[in-house]
Amino acid sequence: MAGLIAGGLGAPITAILITIRHGGADGPEIILPVMTTVALCFFVMQLQRNVSVYTLEFLRLGIDLDRARQVDPLSLVRVRSVVHTADFDELPADMPVRQALAQFKESAARWFVVRGEGGQFAGIVSLHEMRLAIAEEELADLLVLADITDSFQPRLHEEMSLKEALASFNATEAEVLPVFKDQEAGSEFRGVVSRQDALNAYCECTEQA
Fold first, then answer.
1. For strand 121-126 and strand 156-157, is the pairing parallel, antiparallel, or unpaired?
2. pLDDT score of 94
3. Where are the domains of the chain?
4. With contact defined as beta carbons under 8 Å apart, do 78 and 160 qualify?
5. pLDDT tier at 27 (50, 70, 90 boundaries)?
6. How far apart are the C-alpha atoms of 23 and 54, rounded to whole Å?
7. Helix (H) or strand (E) holding 14
8. Model-wide pTM > 0.85
9. In CATH, which superfamily holds the domain spanning 76-208?
């Protein structure tokens, strides 16, 4: 009885309790053989991919529930599913910082994509970086956006998982990161992903898991 319950149902503790209580044997001498039987049966079932009457049919269909439980949902979601490809504002890299600040005041945006020569992606500039740049009045009229744009911030690519994207956000204070077609140098700029986008996707994945 103990072996059947432990192996078939995957419930070793239940097997011990039921056998001792309803097995028809009295005295403590039954405890050791019951526990030994349960341990051996449960060990054998673990070697057989933890099969039980509840999971056998799934395995026959090719569904490994143990493997599914070990997979991080974020590793299955790609950056391309949350990237913003059009709804962002842009500024030229040669625009003076003071003029760019006026653009910030007229817009509700907290960051702008900066474009260099030929429309090439040059970086992302935030309102915080703008405020730091104009702190020195003498420099405010001399600096252009290219001077304060961080071109070394982490870069994402479309096939990157959201798990990797969140790790990139954790490595920087940036609220927005650029997304490129792939990891190759000079790859095409595709859009941006905000930290909030990544966190929202994380919340959705944990709710569905």
1. unpaired
2. 92
3. 2-64, 76-208
4. yes
5. low
6. 24
7. helix 12-22
8. no
9. CBS-domain (3.10.580.10)
